[in-house]
């Protein structure tokens, strides 16, 4: 972002200097740096970066090629509580990332059915199963005490991270 | 797929239980009104232990806690279930599930349709600082689906709704609207149809100009002389008549009685405020 702005200002200064010499004092905006969207996108690079299905598709594909990572009713028409759910989701994602450090294969899916909070995760088989069971129990207990609602974790393990393509 | 089969089986068992136990009051009313629906009466349904285990019922004692109360069951003219969600395919499958459940339980599914989706659009600045001309647009789509069930009693409505709500998918919200008819067997303050069960009906061709017409203002035909002669007798709510006028509300307490052309005796209305 900074480099593109620097480039833009350099270009502008060149253009303005040329124009001012021609006794014209209008500024021209000629770069497209601000027009590109950068949200939740991994930029195309050399071709050696592995990328999962979730990371490969951009946010405008949600609902068409991607599903929803967090499923609750507060964003529907006539429903409220969206801000609280977002804060809870952020905390849960950071908590899971830290508790199962290096084991997460992909993003966590959070589902809310009534009072019940279901966390669905895909893990790499990095730890022993007994250690996984302990961490699942620890997470469920701690989060249910914290959020005062039943928390369930549905976990699936995978040998290694599933790569969709290389960017 | 297995889950779908299981749910169908459990709905069948639920329906057996419902028709056997839960609707005695309504059953009596419907019998009186001459409904064509077959009712098993008060005998216990033949439910196997395997079925019960599937439903999570450990002993028959918990089933027998369904009590038959003397007070009349609430009657609903229309039960409207409206579901909202972000994903249209999820609502499609839920509509299939809910209509299947209604069909298996023997409820009359009036219609299932899709109201128009609602889109909320936000146009925000793309950059944190300046660059007012460059914006980004987001939209949130809410799809709806409505399932309408007509002429259902309070107990069966409760059972159906509980079953539906337990199986609501995540990210789907539900709104239930119930349009009530008066509860059977009571003259309530809102409105009721009172007539003797053995009276026959005569079509009333003329509209009589009575002062009490100002109170109700319906299109019903009735005669003041008739209403004075016949007294209020045992009330039974005829579900047919409740259906014919869904516009009745609590304030205007006029009820239109359906008249049968070949009958010769009178039907009448009671206007109660």
UniProtKB/TrEMBL annotation, chain A:
Principal location: mitochondrion
Localization annotation: Mitochondrion
Any one annotated GO CC term: mitochondrion
GO biological process terms held by the UniProt record: translation
PROSITE patterns: PROKAR_LIPOPROTEIN
Annotated keywords: Mitochondrion, Ribonucleoprotein, Ribosomal protein, Transit peptide
Pfam families: MRP-S24
Keyword Nucleotide-binding: no
Family that this chain belongs to: Belongs to the universal ribosomal protein uS3 family.
Protein known as: 28S ribosomal protein S24, mitochondrial-like
Organism of provenance: Cyprinus carpio (Common carp)
Lineage: Eukaryota, Metazoa, Chordata, Craniata, Vertebrata
UniProtKB/TrEMBL annotation, chain B:
Top-rank taxon, per record: Eukaryota
Entry keywords, A to Z: Mitochondrion, Ribonucleoprotein, Ribosomal protein
GO molecular function: structural constituent of ribosome
Cellular component GO terms, alphabetical: mitochondrial small ribosomal subunit
Gene Ontology biological-process entries: translation
Subcellular location as annotated: Mitochondrion
InterPro entries for the chain: Ribosomal_uS10, Ribosomal_uS10_dom, Ribosomal_uS10_dom_sf, Ribosomal_uS10m
SUPFAM superfamilies linked: Ribosomal protein S10 (SSF54999)
Domain Small ribosomal subunit protein uS10: 80-177
One Pfam short name: Ribosomal_S10
Matching HAMAP family: Ribosomal_uS10
Annotated family: Belongs to the universal ribosomal protein uS10 family.
Protein name: Small ribosomal subunit protein uS10m
Organism: Cyprinus carpio
């Amino acid at each position: 972002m900074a480099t593109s702005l620097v480039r833009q200002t350099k270009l502008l200064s060149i253009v303005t200097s040329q124009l001012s010499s021609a006794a014209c004092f209008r500024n021209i905006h000629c770069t497209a740096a601000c027009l590109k969207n950068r949200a939740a996108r991994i930029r195309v690079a050399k071709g050696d970066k592995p990328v999962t299905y979730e990371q490969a598709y951009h946010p405008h594909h949600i609902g068409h090629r991607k599903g929803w990572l967090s499923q609750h009713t507060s964003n529907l028409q006539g429903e409220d509580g969206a801000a609280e759910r977002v804060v809870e989701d952020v905390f849960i994602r950071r908590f899971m990332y830290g508790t199962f450090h290096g084991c997460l294969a992909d993003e966590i899916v959070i589902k809310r059915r009534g009072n019940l909070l279901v966390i669905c995760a895909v893990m790499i088989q990095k730890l022993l199963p007994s250690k996984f069971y302990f961490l699942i129990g620890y997470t469920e207990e701690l989060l249910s005490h914290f959020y005062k609602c039943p928390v369930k974790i549905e976990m699936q393990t995978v040998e290694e991270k599933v790569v969709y393509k290389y960017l | 797929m297995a889950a779908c089969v299981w749910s169908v089986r459990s709905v069948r068992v639920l329906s057996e239980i419902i028709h056997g136990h839960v609707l005695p009051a309504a059953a009596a009313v419907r019998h009186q009104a001459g409904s064509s629906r077959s009712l098993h009466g008060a005998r216990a349904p033949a439910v196997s232990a395997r079925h019960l285990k599937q439903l999570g019922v450990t002993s028959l004692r918990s089933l027998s806690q369904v009590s038959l109360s003397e007070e009349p069951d609430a009657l609903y003219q229309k039960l409207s279930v409206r579901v909202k969600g972000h994903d249209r395919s999820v609502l499609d499958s839920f509509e299939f599930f809910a209509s299947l459940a209604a069909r298996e339980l023997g409820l009359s599914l009036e219609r299932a349709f899709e109201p128009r989706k609602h889109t909320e659009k936000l146009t925000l600045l793309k950059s944190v600082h300046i660059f007012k001309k460059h914006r980004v647009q987001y939209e949130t789509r809410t799809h709806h689906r409505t399932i309408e069930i007509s002429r259902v009693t309070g107990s069966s409505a409760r059972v159906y709704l509980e079953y539906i709500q337990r199986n609501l998918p995540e990210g789907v919200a539900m709104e239930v609207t119930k349009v009530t008819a008066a509860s059977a067997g009571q003259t309530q303050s809102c409105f009721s149809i009172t007539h003797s069960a053995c009276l026959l009906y005569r079509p009333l061709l003329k509209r009589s100009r009575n002062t009490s017409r100002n109170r109700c203002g319906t299109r019903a035909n009735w005669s003041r002389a008739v209403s004075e002669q016949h007294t209020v007798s045992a009330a039974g709510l005829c579900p047919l008549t409740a259906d014919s006028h869904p516009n009745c509300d609590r304030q205007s307490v006029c009820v239109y009685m359906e008249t049968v052309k070949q009958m010769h005796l009178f039907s009448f209305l009671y206007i109660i405020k």
